[in-house]
Amino acid sequence: MENVEFRMKNEKRNVLFLCTGNSCRSQMAEGLTRHFLGHLYRAYSAGTQPSGYVHPLAVRAMQEIGIDISHGYSKFPDVFRNITFDVVITVCDDAAETCPLWLREGYVEHIGFYDPARAQGSEEERLAVFRQVRDEIYARVLPFLQEFTTNDR
After folding, report:
1. How far apart are CA 88 and CA 86, in angstroms?
2. Is 92 marked active-site?
3. Of 32, 61, 92, 96, which one is the catalytic site residue?
């Protein structure tokens, strides 16, 4: 009998969110996915050049909607070498261009977002940019993941 791989109906999929610094966008995407789609996905995040921290305004923007990402940390994708990802989502152009080859074994999708860490102005003005990016991630990434599951890729 052939060795056929199949996914149990209730088995969670692995998703990795990849950006450059792993301090804002990928951390927010991981938090949103765990919170809203945790029954379908095990979510992870990493950066091609980790910043060494999770941006405090990303933490605040997520806390506003009841999601705590304060215990996250920025990391290289290599820490996940033993995990097979069903889907890798690059959330910035740089990560899309420099995505490690071993991550391309699963399905790779680019859904880019503005880097809120680059926002200028007062703290409240910068926080508004983080909120906007958070809401865009929610509006674009979560429907993609739901459809990805529905299409049984």
Report:
1. 7
2. yes
3. 92
Question: Which residue out of 15, 18, 19, 54 is catalytically annotated?
Answer: 19
| 31, 69 contact by CB (below 8 A) | yes
Per-domain boundaries in the chain: 15-148
- Among the residue ranges 64-68, 112-116, 148-152, the one predicted with the least confidence is 148-152
Catalytic residue, from 99, 103, 129, 141: name it: 99
Segment 28-40, tens digit of pLDDT: 999 999 999 999 9
22 within 8 A of 75, measured Cβ to Cβ: yes
Report the alpha-carbon distance of residue 8 to residue 73 in Å, rounded.
31
CATH 3.40.50.2300 fits 15-148, yes or no: yes
The answer to whether residue 99 is catalytic is: yes
- pTM assigned to the model: 0.89
